[in-house]
Every structure is written in structure tokens, then in C-alpha cells.
């Protein structure tokens, strides 16, 4: 073998050695993240599948009970009540938040003096902790001395039992959740500013007015952003927990009208220590969210339009 061939093979072996070293260093640097993923995500996820078929609790290992947890859930009236509450709230909250977030984003997309201040004002509520938000709104919506009812009485209108009535409790919660849609507004703003002005210039030449530009250009080109907010809003609404829990001190009052699915799951897991039962509830929620998300993705092909 010539010296030139030996030199080439040596360079190849050296290159392979360098690549292997880089691969080992890459694995080494990502090892903490990999271990964290396996220990704190993968293991609890797989364990919850097994625990959903057992009577496991924090105090004892329990025993395998098969589908007993799922059968018991089907006979749990509060389980069905929590599902109904969650679905009703989702059906009310998601459309309101999407429409309101889009409308405000369209207003904040105008080029006027001080627009940055207005954008900041609408985003600030998202920075307030949920517990603090619940505390403030519980005072604002108090049936006896709340600010909202004081305003209604000032105009000669009857007070509304916002959080004290089963008919108004979910509406009140929708109002509170709509107060913190700053993140959706920012996302919509980003989508609006990503639309090329050439579309509007061409429409202006054709004589289109502001309404026609909005309905024929802005909304169709913003459908990917609307779709993202729809999916995230659906997932977040089905998992709502902190706000109603803080508003009602974990009771879901009045008459369990604010007892949502995750609240019921939490009470079973950490209140009654029925971890197996709660694991079964968690997997039912996972399946529901997965199915609804897949349905949304399936319908998106008909109404979501992407810029070419």
C-alpha cells in the first residue's frame, strides 16, 4: 500500500473518530434532559396506565382491579356533572375568546399614536397570577358588595348573582377567562403583520372597501393562526382547573356548577387519595382531547388557507 493511500485511510479514520466523539459529547450534554424526560414524564405516563387498572393510593400499593375504576366512573354522577360543566364552558369560552381576541387584534393592528401602550395594556392581564386574578374577580363579582352590581344598581338595574347562581356562574367564568386573552391577541397580531401588504394594494386598486378587505383577505389568510388558537383554546378549556378552583376554594359551588373535570380528578387523587381512580379519569380526558383534536385537524383542510 502506498503512502498516499495510508494517509487517506488515516484521515478517514480520524474523521470517523471525530464524528464519534462529537456524537458522544452530544449525548453527554443532552443526558440531563433525556433523564428528566424519562423520569418525570415517561415513567409517570406509563405508570398511570397501569395504576388506572388498580386500587392504588398514596397510602397503600393497592391491587389489580381490571376495569372496575372505569365501571365506577360510569356510575359517578359527579363525574358526568363535571364532564357537562367542562363541555359547556368550552363551548362558551373558546368562541368568545377567539372572536374577541381577533377583534381586538384587528383594532391594535392600526397605526395610531401610542399603539404600543394599548398593546401592552391588553397583554398585562396575562402576567397576573391566576390565583390573584381569581381573588380580584371574586370581589368584583360579589353579589352583595361587588363593583359590577354597584354599577348596575347605580343605573337602576337589579343586581346579578354572578358567582352565587348556577345560571350565571359559567358566564362569569367565561368573562374572567376572556380578561386574560392577551397571548391570543399577540399571536393574532403576529399573523396580521405577516400578511403581505401587496394583497391590500391589489384589492384597493380593484375598489375593495375595508369590510371586503377584512373578509376576503385578512380572515382567510389568518385562518392558520385562528386554527392554532382554536386547538390550544380547546385543550386549555378542557383542562381548566386553577381559576375555578381558586374562585370556589375547591368546592365548585354553587351546586357543583363550577366543578370541572380536572377539579374532580384532583379531588379524587389528592383529596381522597384514590390515585387509581384518578388515573382512569386522566386517561379518559386524554382520549377525549385526542379525538377532538384529530377532528379539528381533519376539518382544517376545508377552511384553513396557507399563503403560497
* Rounded average pLDDT: 90
Taken from the alpha-carbon principal axes, the silhouette is flat
Number of helices: 13
Task: Outline the biggest β-sheet.
Answer: none
Radius of gyration: 27 Å
Oligomer: single chain
Describe this structure in words.
There is one protein chain. This protein has 308 residues and is mainly alpha-helical. It has 13 helices and no strands. Helix 10 (210-238) runs antiparallel to helix 13. The termini are far apart. The mean pLDDT is 90.
Set down the secondary structure blueprint.
Blueprint: H1 3-51, H2 68-74, H3 77-108, H4 115-123, H5 130-140, H6 147-154, H7 169-178, H8 182-193, H9 197-205, H10 210-238, H11 242-248, H12 261-271, H13 275-303
Helix pairs in contact: 1-13, 3-7, 3-8, 3-10, 3-12, 5-11, 8-10, 10-13, 12-13
Please give a handful of descriptors for the protein shown:
single chain; 308 residues; mainly alpha; 13 helices; 72% helix; 0% strand
Structure, briefly:
This protein is 72% helix and 0% strand.
